[in-house]
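re: ur question from yesterday

yeah so i grabbed the chain u mentioned. its 965 aa long if i counted rite. heres the sequnce exactly as i have it in my notes:
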Amino acid sequence: MKKLFSFFFVFVGILFSSKINAQDIRIGIPRIEIGSRPDEKSVSLKSMDVQVEIFGNLAKTTTTLVFTNSSSRNLEGNLVFPLPENTTVSGYAIDINGKLRNAVPVTKARAVEVFESIQKQNIDPGIIEKVEGNNFRTRISPILAKGSRTIQLSYYQELKLDKSSYQYHLSLDSSKKISKFNLTTKVYSAAGKPQLVETPDGSFNFSENSNIYEANLSKTDFTPKKSLIINLPKSPNNVESFVQKNVDGSVYFYANLLVDAKSHPKVWSKNIGIIWDNSLSGLKRNHQKELEFLDKIISQQKNLNIEVSLLNISLEKSRLFQIKNGDWSELKKYLENVTYDGGTNYAKILPTNLKVDEYLLFSDGISSFGSNIFNVDKLFYTIASSSTSNYGVLKMIAQKAGGKFINLNENSVENAFKQINESSVQFLGIINNTAGEVYPISTNNVNNGISIAGISQYPNAKLTMMFGRNGKVEFNKELDLSKATKNLEISKIWAQSKVNYLELNPEQNKTEIEEIGKQFSIVTSNTSLIVLENVSDYVKYKINPPAELQNEFNKLSKEGFEQKETRKADLLKNAIVKAKELKEWLKKDFKYVKPKYPKPVADSTDVVVDVRLEDMALPEPRPMTAMEEVGASSNMSIRGVSNFNSSSDKKMKDESLASVPEIKIINVKSDKEYMKLIEASKNPYQTYLDLRKDYAETPAYYFDVATFFFQKKERETGLKILSSIADLGLEDAELYKMLAYKLKEIEEYQTELFITKKVLDWRPFDAQSYRDYALALQDNEQYQSALEYLYKVLTNDYSVEIANRDRDITEIIVPEINNLISLHRKELNLSTINKDIIVELPVDIRVVMNWNKDMTDIDLWVTDPNGEKCFYGHRTTAIGGRMSEDVTQGFGPEQFMLKKAIKGKYKIETNFYGERQMSISGPTTISAEIYLMYSSGKQVKKMITFQNNKPNSGGEGILVGEFEF
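ran it thru and got these structure tokens back, copy pasting raw so excuse formatting
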């Protein structure tokens, strides 16, 4: 009997919605969503405490949130939030036994592996990680039934200069009441009194004491309706600087200053191109600001030609607009009525498609459906207006193409236009050789103000900063470190500045980014922060603990604490055993005992013979040649053994030598109401768009509608809708695995390869990640690489929790390696493959089932012509069928194989035994692959991908395919 774990329900806190245009990217009050689940209103924000400290253009914000759970079950979930450009997440803590515990840095993938390993022991740690763009994700788990959970987040940010003031913005608008609310803001050494532009309450005002301005607000049962916006005056001649001492006598330094240099107006081409990202994520951009920005450019130029290309999973054919006397009403109307749908693929921007002199790319920098790298020989300006933008990618594109990156999120339209319309002065570096590792690097454009960070060998050094154009110095500015403020964590600011530079080439600098993140305890694209519950866990997983646990950690380590992390690294050894086992199984002759029919006596009315069903055996098929096996017709019907060798049957067999059994895939249709409306519509695509506002963040909606269009043979429309799933979550492996299965089914192999590689990057500790990527490589005819990645499944090591979850995956990997070898041996170098796992494994039938969600139990059932069902409780059949081990906690796969098929109909079913989680990816997505004549020259395959719309259906199976030998 299978054992089910308790159910968890997931909530997601997001500071943006695809249903509205993004306005602010500042972290504020999390909005918790559970959708239509019964616990939707169970989790609430009970308490919020915000502490803001501002030093010049640096602000440190520390937010402490207390969530309560009014339901009778434990809940878990994620908070996903974007942060501004040049923000450093410097602290994260969660409550352990009633006290906040600080997180420590760990390699990103390792943090997730440790988190999930511990979670499977019913002990829940905490984690914060950076996902695509400047977006951060933290998990709150568990929030105990009728209990509460506290998290604390600290971050530094560099404030943007607007005219002569820096501006701090904290979004606090909320539709729900907070039981306890506290806000404290302190401004140190200000050039003048801070100006409150907007406050959450009229009583919030600054008072001054010893050149420190402070304001406080404490409320109970408070529903804030306004944000906190502060303008901070900047002295025009003042260079503000900060230092942090190092043990070797050197200092980290940071300085910001105004640069009042004469700018040169930009000379625009008369032929401009606009690449307008109209993918689904484009709905999150601030289109009003973008159009105002365009208006500034067009109003100045008056007469020009603008070619507009829409970008989603393809770059659509451009449309030309001729602007005369600044009238761009036709273009504006066109952009205002753009339809946003699908994922984004920057790789579709090809040089051959770019005909004009310079381009404006309006996008979020997230290429969700293809590589973000493209080669162009034109001038490119990149413009971000979405809260979730990947600033690093947009900067990289602009830098390589000789243009500029414009951040409309944190600049007024006027300032943004000034940046793009003027040839500004450049920072050319520091003269003194006492300073090193200065960021930003030289030649960086300076727009009114600039901030720099570096390391100085001498704490009181006087540094000379150079400014000019094209490498020629026009003027200098002096920085006197002896006058610097000394009470900030400038090392973290410097580290983030260095990471920002390194992330312009993230793959090339991956290792260095990781090391910087770990050394300075900041969250990067390669480093996360983690909190563990027990000191023994820090010792077990070799993670250096926070300071308050260091003594106990050292003591346990010194005493030789026995509980070490158990790693499973013997899959190759298991595979050798499995190969031998499969070879013996293949040799075995599964014969039938002929049925013992009762013989009637002369007078049958006098004798009654009791024959039990279990005493009756099924007829033994005659041996078949390999060619006969291939030639078995799907239409052949065998009534009895007496007909098996008949001449008529022989003739039918001879006429169908070139055929193979036809696999009939059953359409597992969605029964959702929206599908009934779309199917009945005269314009299904428009109906899909009209209904989408109610299902904007529901992956199943896009999956179901895309499947409908694929079945209508409208592939292009179906693929665009399907690709929208990639825009729903940031680094969501479940969503991407869902996509990978469907892409494999429709033979969109190149994109399947991109998607599976992303999952491998995010989850390199999962055997399935390597397997899925390897099979995608095989689909793309990269056979050597496919073999190497399949073999890695056997040579990698895994945490024991994850290894136990996956059961004996060698049952699946050994046939797949040998299938690759049997089909492409001449194209493969087998020198690194252990010869003991190489064995010929041709089988008549192989069925493999995978699914996209962890903590899920789905069963594969195969019923043969004799009515014998092979499943987890009956893993071998009389005719030689064998089922792999039952996977009850992971992603699968489960596999059925049959060496010699007998005549008759085979039925493939799935059974949804149970899900232990509900997540934003929606119902579990299952893929079933059916192979006939596997690993032979006549191999055929069919595949179906569908969703579990009947969770926990127990003993009810769903038919997904059948075929007849």
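noticed a couple things. Residues 1-28, 32-39, 604-658 have pLDDT under 50 and may be disordered. also The longest helix spans residues 571-587.
anyway ttyl
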